[in-house]
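During the reporting period the student researcher (J.K.) took over the structure-prediction task from the postdoctoral fellow and processed the backlog of single-chain submissions. One of the processed entries is reproduced below for the supervisory committee.
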Amino acid sequence: MLEATVIAIAFFPIGVLYASFAEWAIHKRLMHQPILGIQHFYFGHAKVHHGVYKADDTYVVGDRPPRELTLAWWAMPFPIMLQIPLLAAFALLISLPGMVGFAAALVLYQFSYEYLHYCMHVPRNRWFERTRAFIWLNDHHFEHHRKHDNNLNIVLPLFDYLLRTRVRPQAAVFAEG
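J.K. obtained the following structure tokens:
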């Protein structure tokens, strides 16, 4: 049991790195262009979300009701479900405990993506919203609302750097009025 736990913990950071890549790829390829006839995620994100939350004072909700902000309840597991073949192969070819650690990272990453993204657009002066890390991530994401092909990562922008889609923010996030 201890050995399985150690293996799961060892594969967790690998899962986080992979999740950063998956976030980048899904955001770039599925949420900003229709692919294989699938329009739902493209329409909901690129057209509706970016249409409601722009790189101006509409970036934050303000007095408006938050809408079209996060994935629909039924779509939130979709990025994880896309990984099921990979996870099955991982368990069969590498290690079941390793797959558990890897999968735990994917689930935690997806939850972090949804929650951080929500907090960026619906600020409520939460303690972590005042940290340098959150402010940096929020400015990074604000720039994505200015230039949609850039700054695609929200949680861990590693692949924005590696795949050269990272641009330095031109302006700080608009503060809530």
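The committee noted the following: The chain has a mean pLDDT of 88.
J.K. will present the remaining backlog at the next meeting.
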